[in-house]
Amino acid sequence: MREKGSHRRADLDAVLAAGFLCHLGVDVDGTTMVVPTAYGVEGDRLYLHGSVASRTLVRAPDTTVCVTVTHVDGLVLARSVFEHGVNYRCAMIYGVPRLVTDPDEKLRGLRALTEQSSPGQWEYVRQPSRKELAATALLALDLTEASVKTRSGPPDDGDSEDAALGLWAGVLPVVTTFGEPVTDPVLPPDVTPPAHVASRAGRVLGE
Amino acid sequence: MREKGSHRRADLDAVLAAGFLCHLGVDVDGTTMVVPTAYGVEGDRLYLHGSVASRTLVRAPDTTVCVTVTHVDGLVLARSVFEHGVNYRCAMIYGVPRLVTDPDEKLRGLRALTEQSSPGQWEYVRQPSRKELAATALLALDLTEASVKTRSGPPDDGDSEDAALGLWAGVLPVVTTFGEPVTDPVLPPDVTPPAHVASRAGRVLGE
Hints:
Chains A, B: It holds the Pfam family Pyridox_ox_2. Helices cover 23% and strands 38% of the residues of chain A.
């Protein structure tokens, strides 16, 4: 079995740690919406920016949402169309999110969110003012109800009848990396990226 | 405005053409689920593998789903936490999917799906048998109700008060590429990847 399911917390943590963007599914007046948004992890909680979901929550505070984080690792190229697939790591979290209102928690949540995608930025840039904090819609979601699914490795038809076809089969890896930082064109050319940004160029996301 | 919305078909086509994986949001017995799945485009239709959604559709055939395709292009690193963001291209498609039952359409849909992620594979590998076709759950979704959102370019605070802080600001690009094909270890070492696979190594997804 190259496809695996897991409910272990360590597996969930690993998938969440490897990214910064999730797809948030929420019911808005009877219509399902799936919106990409940034997330951060702090302890047993996921924090997320979610203007769509927070608008819903104000009207329907007991709405269960689904947050899905997916990393694509490769195309599984088999000997038959039927056996084609994708190598991936995917976490799904279900729960009723809570709109964060406490300013201290909002600050902690925003810090987790900022550091998830851009470690080092929280200390480097100007932190939120009271007014900015108030204008930010932040959601907290417990990591209690979650599952992880992954697929890895070669195609499954290596010992099937199709192996006799003599075709090539294997995996075409998909790799997500950071490029060279692009400086804001309004800055003078001698302003160079700080080390915590410059050092990420060429690195694989989540490593 | 570096954030843009569009309902133009050409913008939708461009986002869809640049990927092969979507997040499908569907209501399953009152709970929203967001599932990553492969898609293909043929004419005015999106085809997708969707076992979860198809199980729902059998019970509730008029279920509206949301399909979201997101490409992350970079981290927007501003002078303040508040102005941080992500450069992205995102398409959202709403509609009531149709369970494809006609064998000819199923074959066309599977071809679109296979060629979307792996151009050249449909002709190279063994195509589906009648039995395999019957075992595949394929959904068709019209591209009529769709919207595209994108963000590109530098942070928005280049002419704000924060510019005086003298901090570096800009974009850290995120790039998704194909790696070198990994041959199934059960194959003899002289079986090399066909040109349509080997030629993708090092190429950016969607280019």
